[in-house]
Amino acid sequence: MLVKVLHNGNCSKSNAVLEYLDENGVAFEVINIIEDPLSVLELKTVLKKLNQSVFHIIRKTEKLYSEKFADNDYSEEEWLKILSENPSLIQRPILIKGSVAMLGRPLENVKFFIEK
After folding, report:
1. Which residues pair with residue 4 across a beta bridge?
2. Which member of 5, 11, 89, 94 is catalytic?
3. 10 Å Cβ neighbour count for 75?
4. Is 86 an active-site residue?
5. Are 89 and 68 a contacting pair, CB within 8 Å?
6. How many Cβ atoms from other residues are within 10 Å of residue 114's Cβ?
7. What is the pLDDT of residues 68-97, one digit of tens each?
8. What does the pLDDT look like over 17-61, one tens digit per residue?
9. Domain 3-115, CATH class in plain words
10. Is the pTM of this model over 0.70?
11. What's the rounded mean pLDDT across residues 84-111?
C-alpha cells in the first residue's frame, strides 16, 4: 500500500523518514506541505486519520509559534486556519496509509507503522 508523507524539506526528521522508506523499498508519495499547503478540510481529514485534535500537530518549538501564536487561546477551528496558512507550524513528517496516519517520529515507530 502506498504511504503518503506530509513533508517539509527543511526538516531533518522528515528527510530521514523519506530516506528510510526509500532504503526499505516502501512505495511512497511526498506531499510537500510548504509548497502545497493543506486546506482546512485536508487538515481535518489528516487529524481524523491520526485520531487526534489539532493541538497534537502544532509545532510549539517553531520560532513563528512563539513570536505570533503562543500567548493566544485559539479554538480548534482557528488553529486549523492558522496551520493551513502557516504550514511550517505543522509537526512533520506525518505518514498516511489508507485510513490511518501517524507522526513519523521516532523512526522506530515508522518501522512498526510500515510493517502493520
Report:
1. 29, 96
2. 11
3. 9
4. no
5. no
6. 16
7. 999 899 999 999 999 999 999 999 999 999
8. 999 999 999 999 999 999 999 999 999 999 999 999 999 999 999
9. alpha beta
10. yes
11. 95
Look at phi and psi of residue 101 and say left if phi exceeds 0, alpha if psi is from -120 to 50, else beta.
beta
C-alpha cell at position 77? 477551528
Distance CA 91, CA 6 (A): 9
14/87 Cα distance (integer angstroms): 14
Residue with cell 502557516: 86
What Cα–Cα distance (Å) separates residue 68 from each residue in 24, 82, 101? 40, 11, 28
Over the range 29-66, which residues count as b (16 or more CB within 10 Å of their CB) and which as e? eebebeeebbebebbeebbebbeeebeebbbeebeebe
**pLDDT of the residue at 30:** 97
Residue whose entry in the numeric block shows the C-alpha cell 478540510 = 41
99, three cell numbers? 485510513
